[in-house]
Amino acid sequence: MKTREITLISDLEKNDLRRVKRKILRFYHSFGRDLPWRKTDNPYHILVSEFMLQQTQVSRAIEHYEQFIKKLPDFESLVKVRTPLLLKLWSGLGYNSRALRLRAAARVIVKNHGGKFPEDADMLKKLPGIGEYTSAAILAFAFNKPVPVIDINIRRVLLHEFGIDNSVSNEELSFIAQRMIPRGKSALWHNALMDYGAALSAEIKKLYPPLTKQSKFRGSRREARGYILRILLKKKALSKQELLQMISHREKEKIFAQLKAESFISVKNGLVRLK
DNA sequence: TTCCCGTCCA
DNA sequence: TGGACGGGAA
How far is residue A174 CA from its own chain's centroid? Predict the structure, then answer.
């Protein structure tokens, strides 16, 4: 690993780094996207946007971001929000656990950090729903810290521009990514990288497939879960029998139990509702 | 039908 | 380390 890093970096001429850097910055200057969460460095807003952007296209996050921020404008409101409204604001984004984790993370920040937003990757990664990527993204976009942010698109840019083999890990890649960040311009630079990466052709993207693969959605438990939550969003409360009658999945009992265990739903007086 | 996107947990 | 976790658009 160590030797590999060094080999990787020494293979890259300084000129290559400079050339690629210039190209990406020029691209951003001409074609950079004007996204709602780029108008702010409010850590709360950045936190919300980054949770939304996990496994979710920009176009879809845009549609939900404004409304979410409007209804839940700060940590205090997010910490207090009830699950039904939270899930309503999230609905359509997918991966609903992210919404619960976002609220849980906000609660930890308010309680344990006294509302002072953690500005350290290790502290951020201890929060629910925040992993390697999101911690780096928050530090770069909210605090302009010179940390390498590597999502799948940025990974593609680096691999492709430098002709690096797809077997290289993000950890190894981070040594190069780190060196490319212009002094004092981490947020701008990573916006540029992301826009450049998003604009890569489908052919190039196919050369660097996602690190994780998805099982089918049609007929899946995931689909049934989403459906159950949407029913409860609409009907407020109904009996378990009524609810499960509307579901055709053969594992619906298990799925129901799991949603309960994850605190999406609760049962009181024989009525099921969003928790 | 395939594509697009990180985090968590066993 | 591999599987679970959404849902709209192409």
Answer: 19
Task: Write out pLDDT tens, residues A116-159.
Answer: 899 999 999 999 999 999 999 999 999 999 999 999 999 999 99
Nearest alpha-carbon partner for A69 in A37, A115, A104:
A37
Neighbours of A167 (CB within 10 A): 7
Strand B–CB A151 distance below 7 A: yes
For tokens 């947020």, the residue is A187
Q: What amino acid positions of A are annotated as catalytic residues?
A: 50
Chain-centroid distance of CA A118 in Å reads: 18
Q: Does domain A2-34+146-207 have CATH number 1.10.1670?
A: yes
Domain ranges of chain A: 2-34+146-207, 42-143, 221-274
Classify domain A221-274 at the CATH class level. mainly alpha
Provide the CA A197 to C1' C10 distance, Å, integer.
Answer: 19
A221 CA to B10 C1', in Å? 18
CATH topology of domain A42-143: Endonuclease III; domain 1 (1.10.340)
Cβ of residue A205 lies below 7 Å from strand B: yes
| E strand map for chain A | 237-239, 265-268, 271-274
**CA–CA gap between residue A88 and residue A228 (Å, rounded):** 13
Q: Which nucleotide is nearest to A90 (CA to C1')?
A: C6
